[in-house]
Amino acid sequence: MTILIDGTSGITYPQGATQIVGAGPAFSAYASASQTVTTATQTKVAIDTENFDTNSNFDTTNYRFTPTVAGYYQVNGSLRGTGTTTFTSIAGYIYKNGSPSKRAQITASLTAGNNTSITVSDIIYMNGSTDYLELWGNINGTGTLTFTSANSTDQTSYFSACLLRGA
Amino acid sequence: MSSVVISGDTSGAVTLTVPSVAGTNTVTVAAQTGTLNAAGPAVHAMAGGAQTVNNVTATKITLVEDFDTNSNYATSRFTPTVDGYYQVNASIGATAGTSLSYVRTMIYKNGTSYTYAYGAPRNNTSGYAPMSDIVYCNGSTDYIELYCYISGSGTLTITNETFFSACLVRGA
Hints:
The complex is a heterodimer of chains A (167) and B (172). Chain A has no helices and 15 strands. Chain A has strands at 2-6, 10-12, 26-30, 35-37, 43-44, 49-53, 58-59, 64-65, 71-83, 86-96, 99-110, 116-126, 133-142, 145-147, 158-166. The model of chain A is unreliable at 14-19 (pLDDT under 50). Chain B folds into 2 domains: 1-31, no CATH class; 42-171, Jelly Rolls (Sandwich), CATH 2.60.120.40. Chain B has strands at residues 3-8, 14-17, 42-47, 51-53, 59-60, 63-68, 73-74, 77-78, 84-96, 99-109, 112-119, 126-137, 144-153, 156-158, 163-171. Strand 1 (2-6) of chain A pairs antiparallel with strand 1 (3-8) of chain B, so a sheet runs across the interface.
């Protein structure tokens, strides 16, 4: 096998050769317990338990991912909500540096107690020093409103990211 | 044109050959200042036709490949042969003959539920639940499957909105 590096073609390796993969930050974490929230109120999701965190860039106290490598990250956030009386909408947000950066929302007239998840996935640039990401959510309804999760085999409110490309 | 050549043989020895030019020739591949990511396993599969499932029963979904770059997908199971972290995307689309309460898209890892998403019905008889996550696989024994769990009445059917995809995004 020969890997050729030159200034014109970049890096060339034979088709079918051993894969070349990066070693940038990657993490996956989830909420280990359900979280009661107030209707129509932006609330940070308590993502407190890691599946993995290759670069120690996720803070399980502040539920915050601050990657130390500049670049473009695949980011996934999913949030499950329930309401005991009425449940009319759920929105999930990826916050970048404390402000909504990406949003996905489901709005519907749902029956009481309905389970609904919302997933936000996108590629986000991070500067590798001060930029950070958090998962936030918002439920509209009445009765007890909950971001629901339970344990490692019931991960329904979770957050993950991985470096795809350097800056 | 100057080139740096890295070559290996069947014994595993690797040789680095640098240009015969004056001065210092340095190749620097910093550990975390960039990402080289090429030719890792990637798969995409979709429901090949309607599949009837039982009420409130976790059921493995049978899918048909669109692509499978590393031949790691078989019997609706993804067993990647490269150790690393995989971006996984999936959605279950479902219809109910009478009424649909919810549909759950479930990612199973090694035969056990790992992560999932709920979808409320978009009308009385149909719904879907898209999800995305990053999952670690050890490149040998770890495998991932798509399951559904539907609550409803009447005949419950998986629709062609159902898919599963995965791609290596980081080495171990």
